[in-house]
Write a structure and sequence with these properties.
Number of strands: 20
Structural class: alpha+beta
Order of helices and strands: EEHEEHEEEHEEEHEEHEHEHEEEEHEE
Shape: globular
Helix content: 10-25%
């Protein structure tokens, strides 16, 4: 049996070879370069921060950038089941869906105003009970002219999923939602002159309890992790396990490295800025930029003793790479220092030959 070769022959190019984009220096497969270059041709600058983005990403980014909202937190992550006395229509994961009673209107701008008013009542009530992640979504009807008459098309539009804390102005969230929904509707109508708005189908609010991932406590690690010599578990009674892990990597001590008192004198060496303890996953990027280091975080799955990449380190660090293991239970988390990542990853195999593991895909190479 002949073995298949990745080579395309003499004078040809290997489609799996890596190349660098001449515009953004991003590394990718050679056969995807042309497709990637097209994203630069359609890129535009944010008018608030001058960041270059694809045209389809610009509207969302500018709406959040204008009000200083962290885009990394605007997703369906870091959520827990929402306990509320309001009546909801369905449940999807940790999110509950609340139907809004809104009368349809032939003018979609007036319709949006009615939807926002109805959503305000629901979201304001939820935020008084707990920090909330919320999103408004609409099911709208459109009529499309065809050679056979008019066909009805149903299209769903969603606002940006945002965390809303107690004390946050709900009106600001609602205004951003209104602007974003309007831009999406206008973009959809602009795709074809034959599309005509034909009223509201349904309107909903998706909401969940906002529970940001953070770590900082004394934690009993699983036995398999506890037995690993490649992992250092520092006892942190003051919620500073993240800070102590960084110090243990950059300023290692020989005697009793698991004691937090060994690193107290060096705490000022790490710039934390406005980041508070316990450190949230979403705040790690700020610490990387302040200290010019790269921090990768891997979550330990207690169910199957497996690791999952949780945060990829920045590529702008000065060469200092710090790898952390994150273990959580009942929304309480703890950071541990991975002293030797390649040795740590050997738990996945029964063979103990020396291998090098990729920090992003976790594949091993000899």
């Amino acid at each position: 049996m002949k073995r298949r070769s990745n080579s395309t022959g003499v004078g040809g190019s290997n489609k799996n070879s890596r190349v660098e984009c001449p515009k953004c220096q991003k590394s990718m497969r050679s056969d995807t370069l042309n497709r990637h270059l097209k994203t630069h041709n359609s890129s535009k600058c944010c008018k608030y921060c001058d960041k270059l983005l694809r045209e389809d990403q610009l509207a969302k980014h500018e709406i959040l950038c204008k009000d200083g909202i962290d885009e990394a937190k605007c997703n369906r992550g870091e959520c827990a089941i929402l306990e509320t006395d309001l009546e909801y229509s369905s449940v999807s994961g940790t999110f509950k869906t609340f139907r809004l009673n809104v009368e349809s209107d032939p003018d979609y701008e007036k319709l949006l105003a009615k939807v926002i008013l109805a959503a305000k009542t629901v979201i304001t009530h939820l935020v008084t009970q707990c920090p909330t992640k919320a999103q408004i979504w609409l099911e709208l009807n459109f009529l499309e002219k065809t050679t056979f008459g008019k066909d009805r098309t149903i299209r769903i539009f969603r606002s940006i999923m945002e965390p809303i804390l107690e004390g946050t102005k709900v009106e600001s969230f609602l205004e951003r939602s209104k602007v974003y929904l309007k831009s999406q509707i206008e973009w959809w109508q602009g795709r074809g002159s034959a599309l005509q708005f034909d009223g509201l189908g349904k309107a909903f609010v998706d909401a969940s309890r906002y529970k940001p991932l953070c770590g900082g406590c004394q934690f009993e690690a699983p036995k398999i992790v506890k037995d690993m010599k490649s992992v250092l578990n520092i006892k942190a009674p003051d919620d500073k396990c993240f800070l102590y892990c960084l110090l243990a990597k950059m300023y290692p001590v020989k005697q009793n490295p698991h004691r937090s008192s060994k690193y107290n004198a060096k705490e000022s060496k790490i710039q934390m800025g406005d980041v508070t303890f316990p450190v949230k996953i979403a705040d790690i990027r700020k610490i990387e930029e302040l200290n010019n280091i790269s921090i990768s975080v891997f979550e330990w799955s207690k169910d199957d003793d497996y690791v999952i990449p949780l945060h990829h380190g920045s590529t702008s660090g000065n060469g200092t790479q710090i790898n952390l293991l994150y273990i959580r239970e009942n929304f309480i988390g703890h950071y541990l220092l991975i002293k030797d990542f390649n040795a740590f990853m050997r738990h996945r195999t029964q063979y103990h030959n020396s291998m090098h593991y990729c920090l992003r895909c976790l594949h091993g190479f000899t």
